[in-house]
Write a structure and sequence with these properties.
Elements (H helix, E strand, L loop, with lengths): L6 H11 L4 E7 L2 E6 H16 L8 E5 L4 H12 L3 E5 L5 H11 L3 E4 L5 H4 L7 E4 L9 E2 H7 L14 E6 L9 E5 H14 L7 E3 L7 H13 L3 E3 L7 H8 L3 E4 L1 H14 L2 H8 L2 H15 L6 E4 L6 H9 L4 E5 L9 E2 L12 E2 L4 E4 L4 E5 L11 H6 L7 E9 L5 E6 L4 E2 L5 E2 L1 H8 L5 E7 L7 E6 L1 H4 L3 H16 L10 E4 L19 H8 L3 H6 L4 E3 L1
Parallel strand pairs: 1-11, 3-4, 3-5, 5-6, 6-7, 10-11, 12-13, 13-14, 24-25, 25-26
Antiparallel strand pairs: 1-2, 8-9, 14-15, 15-16, 17-18, 18-19, 19-20, 21-22, 23-24
Helix pairs in contact: 2-3, 7-8
Amino acid sequence: MENFNSPIEAFLHWEQKNPNAPFLVQPINGSVIRYTFAEAGKEARKIAAALRDYNLPKQSHIALLSKNCAHWILSDLAIMMSGHISIPLYPTLSADSIQHVLEHSESKAIIIGKLDDFQSQKLGIPDIHKISIGLYGENEGQSWEEIISNQEPIEVFPSVNSEDVFTIIYTSGTTGNPKGAIHTVGNFMECIRIIRSVMKLPQGARLFSYLPLAHAAERIGIGTHGLVVGAEFSFPESLETFASDLEKCQPDIFFGVPRIWTKFQEKILENIPQKKLNVLLNIPFLRNVIKSKLKKKLGLSNAGFMISGAAPLSVSVMKWYKKIGIEILQGYGMTEDCISSHFNLPGENKVGTVGKALPNVQIKLSLEGEILIKNKCLFKGYFKDPETTASVFDKDGYFKTGDKGEYDHDGYLTITGRIKDQFKTDKGKYISPSSIELKLAKNPAIEQICVVGTGIPQPIALITLSEVGNSMSKETLSQVLNDTLVEVNQILKSVERVEKIIIMKEDWTVDNGLITPTLKVKRNSIEKIHQEYYNSWFKNEKKVIFE
């Protein structure tokens, strides 16, 4: 197992050792653009030379605004080669959010790549150096393609030390403005060493990158991890081609957030209703054939690790997948701890937990049950925010995660809620909503859920509908939601029992600011809009209310 000191050192190794090996696979407009390591290295060096020609101070901040694509990886390599620090931005950010991050991070240049609606975002970019990629229809500032045609590649790279700042990752902003977590080269490489000790990917592994590379989990677990093992990266062309692109790739690992897993489940059940699936899985000579076909169709035939993270996945969904031969491993990590925290592993997978602490991770619980973590790759602080930085570390240097948790006798951790998500009913009782939400979310009619209850006697659940829910009549939908309410309330404490389910008129989206780019519900924003209606909803005689 090669032991590299930086991501760029890893890339240069594979470029020299396997110059003609496939590296990047980018489907676009019905065809595919492929890069070998040698081709990618040459292109990245030319972009690095263009960045160098801006004559910026060493380790200036270079922003990267793009969906996942081959050019995201090429841009990241170019920023490394030029001796600068990357500031990745979520591709779904509004113009105001882009402006906030660019100004706060003091970015001196930006690379603009594959985007869905750049016209609505461009007003957020101040007067800084811009490079845009014509392949994806953008033409701001310098043309990527012209640089590739005319620029001489950079030949000498600045030396890299483990303590050099590598990137500033802005959190997705669940509660207020995003904060910029500072990570060093050494942080990332230490995290990769931990990951590789438990996840032994082969050299040249196939990876499918689709969750935002601006997020720590994808950036480290797929992006940097892939560079270290000399992987072949594939990307989806669009939402419409996602399923077929994934099926063609058949990656060695697959990382999904809960909504991806439930969407996959919905699509399978659209084609094979549950009753029919149950019958097929009970026929001995057909069982393995069905499982194999489903895994191949999903693109998971070769995946040794199928991972869920970012938010809890319901136990019922994981058990459903287990029946079709797919073992989902739930993990837990944060931007600040470089995602090196807890993980379930094949053969050591306790469904409903987020696994055991990874090697070299120290954990303790506060008196309130808050999870405190220390590892060798903790972030170095929030950029330009020493007060907040100081507030999130205890006197022993442990990071305060804000999550509450419990360990079982085997050392498996269960997340029981967020410290700040607790609310108090007018009975004076504190409620942690996340475990209630997880129990209700097993109903396939529910897309997103937010359990609230400040100032009313019992909690209520605000929900948006999935495709399954939207396809039902009002009467059927009311009945199935009411049945779930009765079932779940039977296993909740009396103070936790949910009094009403409120179906929202509009979906919660990134665009309307009610979920983050990583699909987490922005509880504060939802409460701000709806809290004035809690009392009237609570007093409504119906159990299921259409807003």
